[in-house]
Prior knowledge:
The chain is mostly helical. It contains ten helices and no strands. It has helices at 2-7, 15-22, 26-32, 36-48, 60-76, 78-116, 124-141, 148-158, 162-165, 169-175. The longest helix is centred in the middle third of the chain and has 39 residues, at 78-116.
Amino acid sequence: MAELVADEAGETLTIPVVAARAGVHATTVYRRWGSVADLLADVTTSRFAGDIVVPDTGSLRGDLERYASDLAKDVSDPDTLALVRATIGTGGEQGAAACRGERQQQLEAILERAEARGEAPPSLERATDAVLAPLYYRAVFTTQPLTPEWTQTLISHLLPDPEDAAPSETERSQAHRDPTG
């Protein structure tokens, strides 16, 4: 199926084309999947199931950095990218759900593990908006590369370094001055 998606433009990918490539009658394919959108959603869900191992580096930051880097490599693959674009293009919300479902489950597992270690992870929604959304947007809608340096900036925005957020000594002393002074 990945070959077919890569070979065919979105508008020419039809059930008869899929059936011909598979060497079966179109009704066989229609019986199993009612539409190209259903077929692509099923293929995408199957393709993404377990293809990226949820990292366990011992810290939330390390896990998210490795996860984002691995995901960037995966969606940068031309076959994967063609499948994602076709699935989203033909499947609407069903296609989008197929593309994000497994990825959100992986991200949720990372956040839950961090919480179990005593860390304070962001919500799944916030992590999705900060990591998955920009990765998929850049991969699907732009030609900008998904470099390791860029993926690290996503994590830096989600989890600012505590040293960067701490007020300086001067700021602390000014905050504690007696205003009547």
